[in-house]
Amino acid sequence: MTGRSKRATVAALAIALALSAGLPCAAARDLTPPETPVDTTVESFFGRTIYDPYRWLEDTGTPEVTAWFRAQNDYTRSILDALPGRAALHRRLGELNSGDVHVRDAQSAADTLVYLKRAPGDATFKLYLRDNLIGAERLLVDPARYSQNGETAAIEYFSISPNGRRLAFGTAMGGTEDATLHVIDVATQRAIGAPIPRARGANPAWRYDGDVLFYTQQRERAEGDPAANQLRGSRAYMRTFAPDGITSDVAIFGGGLDPAIAIDDDDTPTIHVSPVSPFAIGVISRGVQDEVTLYVAPLTQLRGAQTPWRKIAGSELGITDFDLRGEWIYLLTHENAPRYQIVRWSLRNPQPFTLADAEIVVPPSERVLRSVNVAKDALYVQETDGGYDAVRRLEYNVKLSRAAAPAVGIRARTNTKRSPAALPKTAGIARGTLLKMPYRGAVVELVTDPLRAGALARLVGWTEPPAYYSIDGKTGALTRTDVLPRAGSDWSGIASMEVSVKSHDGVLVPVTIVYPKSVARDGSAPLLLEAYGAYGISEAPEFWPSLAVWLERGGVYAIAHVRGGGELGNDWHRGGYHETKPNSWGDVIAAAQWLIGERWTKPAKLALIGSSAGGLTVSNAMIERPDLFAAMVSLSGFHDALRSEIGASGPANVPEFGTVATEDGVRDLLAMSSYARVEDGVAYPAALLTIGYRDARVDAWDPGKMAARLQAASVSHGGSGKPVLLRVDFDGGHGASGTAQMVDETTDLFAFLLWRTGAPEFALP
To answer: Which of 155, 168, 266, 607 counts the most CB atoms within 10 A of its CB?
Structure first.
């Protein structure tokens, strides 16, 4: 691969144009965007010549680039703020998002429940604790306490010790996700030990007694270190808390510690432990790749670089989730099972894991298995069938014969007590029971405690607000709790349905439609079509309160469960991955054509929306079939696939999208780069692109470059002349972090969509 760059002299011109583009509202009717200077960067990849006219926008720390982004945002504001219906829309969205309580990320330990909660009036989520499910609630952590220099802090993650005595949590400023790890005493809420910096995604985990904390930390950054190096070279550490309050930290897993452990600089090492197992698991994650590599060591022998780690399994064995109980590790794997199976393996076995020697717990079937969770009484497994989740409960301590072929049931063995925590006497599994769910929806969280029977599940549906249900440890019955109060929204007039749509290659693609029961099927309804299609992540049922402003106006909302996601298992993920990535937007186009053909909508009323990696999917659908859509929205989306590796999270995304270091990678990335595929003279629909200037996952320059390229195409000979807007939140990250921020962004989103799909009250005067 070779490359060369000729940069035009754009700095002074960029500032001049940017400053002159801060248009007042009186100029709102002028849809001509600020002019953007063109760079002359040219690169050659394996004989392919690539022109990058807006490479200069990647220097987001320079005054001229910052001025350009401010000018673009001023231009966007001059248009969106002039839409007549925007003010009323903002008030309505404030009502929809101000009265309800939001709770998420619950954890259970020592008969206590810890969770994040945002009450009406709260700007961000706070951390609360209650005893059992019925005890009084008390505030543990208010992130405002950690705000600095006028910046708002947010809680990124947390972990309570198995005995409930200590809490570890991470805070980050302004949506940056650059977290600092703190530890407090739960009873007194006082800090214990010094805060730990560079703890983004620290994955804190406690030893059974709460005296040892495992966490992952990034290395110190050198001055001028490229963004792509910021997450490289991380290590997993062990912090020990002495009775006198003194703490000590030692690296126990990661690059450079043990030459026998193969770990790349871009890999992330973490530690997993359980209060009912004498073993520690070292986990190596390769970027966004689901499959992990696993090592094991006795919990009592963790001693820095001398820890006797032994490899269990490599990522090629398709393991994506696991849990521990005694000597057993329960593994969720897609090896020889595209929709996954669960097996168990003895950690006392000196040989590496092989599927042929494993004992099958849940065999492969038509249902997609999502997670495996150990509780005191049973194993709880999350499953998906036709896009809707259920929970399977499998009791322990029943002696069954070994499964030589796919069948439920494995034999019991006796464990020896290896830690102060009580270990199970046997590890057998009985035939499981599929629990009866209160409605068809998604299991967003499945919370178990190895020291306590039963489980807690957070359920949600397309028209059902989220709620926490307790699962009885004896009967498996689900009972609604008051952890999350009932939402005040009335969705009785809204329905949902699922259809299968034939894609370009004959593959049937699931599509969900959420609609007012009174909607007319005559093509007159505005329709918002969403898609994601990456990382094997499913577009599971989700309750979106703000969607009411669209549905109240007779709008329809549809979700295309495209390839690249995980709705139908590992094969579905690989069907929109690397060289097969074009299937993702091919599926979107097929869904759009079906919706038009069935008279749910028409092209003048059809809009696309995607966020993050979904921005790549919907922008490519728009580029390939601009005639099908009235508008496209990309929320913190990425589009310039060929340059994605240079960002902080770029190396982590190589397993999902590919690399410019190989000829095949360049071919695949070029085929999926919507930025590179934009052509002058094409009548593209209107577009709104958003970004948080401090986004830690998608660099601000990416949607900036895409907006500039679309604007140039729009005003060029034969272009559509339709508006291309770039909305920039200079204090935001990857999505809104507070209620006010979210309401502002959602107002702009729906105001733009209603304007472009023809709502009379949003027409520019």
So the answer is: 607
